[in-house]
UniProtKB/TrEMBL annotation:
It is a multi-pass membrane protein. Keywords: Cell membrane, Membrane, Transmembrane, Transmembrane helix. The keyword Membrane applies. One of its GO terms (cellular component) is plasma membrane. Signal peptide: none annotated. It is found in: Cell membrane. Pfam families: VTT_dom (PF09335). The lineage of its organism: Bacteria, Bacillati, Actinomycetota, Actinomycetes, Micrococcales. Residues 34-157 form the VTT domain. The keyword Repeat does not apply. InterPro entries: DedA-like, VTT_dom. This is Membrane protein DedA, SNARE-associated domain. The chain crosses the membrane at residues 16-34, 138-163, 169-189. Belongs to the DedA family. It comes from Brevibacterium siliguriense.
Length: 410
């Protein structure tokens, strides 16, 4: 151990260490497995005792990193000549579009951030070349990133070497540990933010898919709604009992049906941003009933049906164990209330109307209870009800091309 420590100290206190650091930093951009950061932190730990000089390490590391990054950028520029042919592969095209999207709003700051993300420096530098980022702009931003990275790594090594003076190996271990914790934390935050961004992006894209569905929406803005079911009505045969009358399998009640018995003109599987919970005692199934709470993180699967406002009012009446009647206030409320609002329409388990959003002027609506998940004791649903929920959820999942989260604002 003493011999190994002596050899390490001799190497890292030699004038050649600056060249070693510069070469390692340069290669790291093209061959990410080269441990340039670990080597720099180790050298900086010994620098706390006076040799090598910290400023020399910073200069060597920043210069080598900039040189290596420039080489990676030029590789990207050289490869860009074949990008047109590569774009015929969907995955390649998506990666290039993602790179362009990243550089577009953030500019060269991507090059700075990429220095501190595992594997990010190669992706950022080669990607900047593929996208044709001007070399002058590249050198400015990458130079800032390289210098910041060199100062950061050298500083961590100096901290370890200062704290554990006389015990350089422990200082090296602590320095590398600090770097790993910082990098790991940053990567975790980045992944969480990226996951949230992707969910928002996927939500918007899928909601746009609903807007773009081949359904004639003209003239429906004051007659039709997208009724969003998160419970047993996700099963189309279950909803048919509300529209055409009948008793669902396992239910205790027979429904009279709606005044208009027509089946939905369209349906789509979606995701709501909240969650469902079970409470109360169902007169239809026994056990708990499903309610929707938009304030609790989700998502939860749901089914959107395009039906008339009259049909929606009749479905809501039967959900609240009342017979359908003409001139229901729901028939106007669904059009009068703005997206993101709620309104209580009377007593009953599902008396709260929620206007989730709208699609080309056609509101997306559902109903739930006035209480939230935390405001009431939860109860266990019965198996027939759960079986119907499983059937409806399977229908939502099976319609993969129809999956789209609702951009609910309540």
């Amino acid at each position: 151990m003493e011999l190994a420590l002596e050899l390490l100290a001799t190497t890292l206190t030699s004038p050649w260490v600056y060249l070693l650091i510069a070469v390692a930093a340069a290669l790291d951009s093209l061959v990410p497995i080269v441990p340039s950061e670990t080597l720099l932190i180790t050298a900086a730990t010994f620098a706390a005792a006076g040799q090598p000089h910290p400023a020399g390490l910073v200069l060597a590391a920043a210069s080598g990193a900039l040189f290596g990054d420039l080489a990676a950028h030029l590789v990207g520029r050289f490869a860009s000549s074949g990008v047109g042919r590569l774009r015929r592969w969907t995955r390649i095209a998506e990666l290039l579009d993602s790179a362009r999207t990243a550089f577009s709003p953030r500019g060269g700051s991507v090059l700075i951030a990429g220095r501190f993300v595992p594997g990010g420096r190669s992706l950022a530098t080669i990607g900047s070349g593929l996208l044709g980022i001007p070399i002058r702009m590249f050198l400015v931003w990458d130079g800032i990133g390289s210098l910041a990275w060199a100062l950061y790594s050298t500083g961590i090594g100096l901290i370890g070497g200062t704290i554990f003076e006389g015990r350089p190996l422990l200082g090296v271990a602590v320095g590398i540990g600090i770097a790993l914790v910082i990098t790991g934390s940053a990567e975790l935050v980045r992944r969480l933010l990226r996951g949230r961004s992707r969910r928002r992006e996927r939500s918007g894209r899928r909601f746009d898919d609903l807007r773009g569905r081949n359904v004639m929406m003209e003239g429906m803005s004051q007659t039709h709604v997208w009724y969003v079911s998160y419970g047993s009505n996700m099963a189309r045969d279950r909803l048919a009992c509300y529209l055409q009358g009948g008793r669902p399998p396992g239910a205790k009640l027979t429904y009279p049906g709606a005044r208009d018995s027509s089946l939905p003109q369209a349906e789509a599987g979606i995701e709501l941003p909240g969650t469902i919970y079970f409470a109360g005692e169902s007169k239809v199934w026994g056990g708990g009933m499903a309610f929707y709470d938009h304030s609790v993180p989700g998502p939860t699967p749901a089914k959107a049906y395009l039906i008339t406002a009259e049909q929606f009012a009749d479905v809501a009446a039967q959900e609240m164990n009342r017979p359908p009647e003409p001139d229901s206030p729901l028939e106007r409320l669904v059009f009068d209330l703005p997206p993101g609002s709620s309104h209580s329409v009377g007593p009953g388990g599902y008396e709260t109307l929620l206007v989730l959003d709208d699609v080309n002027g056609v509101p997306m609506v559902t109903f739930t209870a006035a209480h939230g998940s935390a405001d009431i004791e939860h109860t266990q649903p019965q198996e027939p009800y759960l079986a119907m929920l499983r059937t409806g959820t399977a229908e939502v999942r099976a319609a993969s091309e129809l999956h789209l989260p609702a951009a609910a604002r309540v």
